[in-house]
Amino acid sequence: MVDSRNQPGLSDQKESNCMQSYQQSYQRKPKRKLSGPLRFFLAVALLAGVSFACAWVWHSMQETRQLAREAEHLQEQALNLSPAEASQAASPGGENQSASAEDAAGGEGEPFPPRPQFTGTVAYSEPVNNSYFDDAIFLGDSISMGIPLYKVLPGVQVVAVAGANPVNAASAALIQTEEGELTLLEAAARYGERSKVYIMLGANGLEAERDEFIAGYREFVRAAKEQYPQAAIYLQSITPVTEQAVEKYAGAQNERIEEFNLAIMALAREQGVYYLDVAAALIDEEGALPRESSPLDGMHLSAECYAKWFEYLRCHTVQAQVSE
Amino acid sequence: MRAAVALMMGMLCCWCSGCAAQGPEIVPGELAERLLEELSFSDQLLEADRELVENYYGALDGVESFSVWMSSGGTVEEIAVLRLNNPQDLPGALEALGRRMERQRQTYADYLPEELPKLDSCVLQGAGNLALLVVSGDPQAEEIVQTLIAG
Questions:
Q1: Quick one: pLDDT at residue A39?
Q2: Contact A178 B44 (CB under 8 A)
Q3: Which chain B residues touch A161 with a CB distance below 8 Å?
Q4: What are phi and psi of A241, to 5 degrees?
Q5: Chain A contacts to B (CB-CB under 8 A)
């Protein structure tokens, strides 16, 4: 815009017109700046900017906390595992591990946000409904045998046998059927393809050496991954016991169970599968199974425990995290 | 071989009385509940559905109605009352129950051998169209079962 007031040789009339024009121009400028749509747009943009900044700050804080928790887990492991095992658990896991996790995610190529390599246990997620377990299978020992008997989740597939343990689970023909004697995984194969595999073993192997226990468990997990390459495989913690359990079951003491659970968690990371801290849902403030939760023998669980166990499972799923 | 052992075990435990006429009057669910009340069990037994029963006993073809109660794994205690469509199916039903006992014996031999005496003293009976198995460890089991069947 040209300011005509500074131009020489103009008549008064012209000057007057120019002044009027200037005044009009001067008066119009504030109107443009404060026009309704513009103000609205600016307000929305400002609000969006502030919201984004807050969300970013919150996300950063969450990430920091998660890293701190991870560091704590690793410290705990380092205290309880041999240096070689601790080092292995802390390592990212390599290409095979990443591939397994991606397979479990459905082959989309995007890793799960809380991948097993970064978190010790599957984090809390929005509860899923029972249909989530329609394509699941539960493999385990006598603890898992209670799932269909207590009718915790009607229709869910369970292959379990009393006495199964990590040392014998991969190779021993424990399941006696009309077709003959089958291993746990052979018996599970009769149910066809599954998208989620929940494994709970260990309550019967507590008297074994930890190395032997984990070697057997590793063999079983590898076989399960081979049989279910697209499935999300969950290793569930050994459930806690009461103080009375050791009278009937060798090695059944919570300190030992915790030690073995840490080793199972490290195994889950190593194998690129998921670890579920089911025990956390069952222990009391002293870290033990309350006596009333297993009046029979201190190990086998009451109906209430099964309800708590499955409530935990509903709130700790990897698919839910993918959708977040 | 296993079938033969199971059958022999069934024969040993079996008590085929002349109460065939009682069979049709017995409702499996009611008898099982009476057994739960009258006998002593260390475990809290849970009622199994058809799928689970077939998983452990084999197909329930020829079974008109049934009531099966099982331990969740801490013991071998169990109750099975099978009412058959045809009394001629009774030997087959008893054989299936005997096979179940044999499998339990194999499973618990290493797992919880102290449970084996309960299997040794199991009550496996057939009468008319009724096949019945009780594993309880209760020394009065056979006597109580006979009393309940006799009505």
A1: 77
A2: no
A3: 107
A4: -130, 165
A5: 141-143, 145-146, 148-151, 160-163, 174, 176, 178, 204, 248, 296-297, 299-301
Q: What pLDDT is attached to residue A109?
A: 41
CA of B109: how far to CAs of A178, B10, B41, B77, B139, in Å? 20, 19, 20, 15, 21
Chain B contact probe: residue of A174, A247, A300, A302 with most B CBs at under 10 A: A300
Write out chain B residues lying below 8 Å of A145, CB-based.
72-73
Output the pLDDT for position A6: 40
* Mutation to test the B interface, candidates A204, A296, A305, most B Cβ within 10 Å: A296
CB spacing of B103 vs A176 below 8 angstroms: yes
The kind and range of the H/E element at A4 are: none
pLDDT in tens, A289-319: 999 999 999 999 999 999 999 999 999 999 7
Mean pLDDT score of chain A: 77
Query: What is the mean predicted confidence (pLDDT) over B50-67?
Result: 92
- Quick one: tokens of A265? 């968690």
What integer pLDDT is reported at residue A32 of this predicted model? 53
Say if residue A308 is exposed, middle or buried (CB neighbours under 10 Å; 0-12, 13-18, 19+).
middle
